[in-house]
């Protein structure tokens, strides 16, 4: 796997400020608000979170022998500041079949409309390459994650060089299910942010 060296900057960027803004995407404001309400189960307000989780059981992994990922936690964030458009970001935690420990990823996200006029998130990989797309299911209970390639880092050693998680035969598309936001508290580093998860 390719080794990346910009981890400290990437981690600081994700923690400090999401990268993409609602007014940049050209989406109708009414559709924009409706999409936000679907993702965050209500209006964004100053800041909103949505948590999605998937743990793959032994039966699933036996049927998908090339799948590296055994568990995912996905935290999607929206944030508003006076005079600025809404900004979005994600942070994800991964566990792997043949690698011990917890690994994190994250970046800012934008939103686009596809050919069917459905809105979904598109989130950068390292240096603008790769990344992930995320789309809500019709019942708003799950998020479908399409993976290209993203940098990941060891949660216990975030200062080390990051590695990459690349789409493979069984690691291209993941469905993660909505859960209580508190289940994603481990993905947040600020005490105020962790405390606020229980309020959405």
How would you portray this structure in words?
With 200 residues, the protein is α+β, with helices and mostly antiparallel strands. The chain is built from 4 helices and 10 strands. Strands 1, 2, 3, 4, 5, 6, 7, 8, 9 and 10 form a 10-stranded antiparallel beta sheet that branches. Helix content is 18%, strand content 41%. Mean pLDDT is 83; it is low at 1-20.
Write the layout of secondary structure elements.
Layout: H1 7-16, E1 20-21, H2 29-40, E2 47-55, H3 58-63, E3 69-79, E4 87-96, E5 99-113, E6 119-123, E7 131-136, E8 142-154, E9 163-166, E10 173-179, H4 191-197
Antiparallel strand pairs: 1-4, 2-3, 2-10, 3-4, 4-5, 5-6, 5-8, 6-7, 7-8, 8-9, 8-10
Defining traits:
alpha+beta; disordered N terminus; ten-stranded antiparallel sheet; 200 residues; single chain; 4 helices
Strand content: 35-45%
Parts with pLDDT < 50 across at least 5 consecutive residues: 1-20
User: How many domain modules?
Assistant: 1
Q: How large, in whole angstroms, is the Cα Rg?
A: 16 Å
Structural class: alpha+beta
Average pLDDT = 83
Task: Write down the overall geometry.
Answer: globular
Number of strands: 10
Range of helix content? 10-25%
Q: Can you count the helices?
A: 4
